[in-house]
Each structure stands twice: as structure tokens, then as C-alpha cells.
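User: Show me a protein chain along with its predicted structure.
Assistant: Here is one chain, sequence first, then C-alpha cells.
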Amino acid sequence: MPWETVTAIISVITVGIAVGRIIYGLSQTLTRLNCSVENLNATLNAFAGDNEKEHEELYGELYSLRENVSELEIKLGHKDSEKN
């Protein structure tokens, strides 16, 4: 084999190894990113569920407070009409 052929084979192998390392690194990075996105999605879904529950509780409390205010207004209205 002439030395040019050996050099060409070594060059092709070197380029193959370099490209393989790049592809391997990208694959690892994409795997980590995929895991991170899945974790963020799960966290976001948990926060959304908690947020829904908190809103329901707040709306329930708000409705209860409106009823209390209405009752007080009715009582105060009756007291004002009794004075007249």
C-alpha cells in the first residue's frame, strides 16, 4: 500500500471518530433536554392543578362573603326602616 492510501484511511477514520463524538455529544444533550422538558411539564401541570384548586377555594370564599354582606345589608335595611 502506498503511503497516500494509508494516510487517506487514517484521515477517514479520524473524521469518522470526530463526527461520532459530535453526534454522541448531541445525543446526550438532547436526552438531557428531553428529560428537563418532561420535568418542567410535570411541574407546570402540578402547579396548574394546584392553581385551579386555589381558585375554586377563593371563589367559594368570595361567594360566602357576598352572602354575608347581603345578609348584613338586609339586616341594616330592616333596622333603618324600623327607625322611620
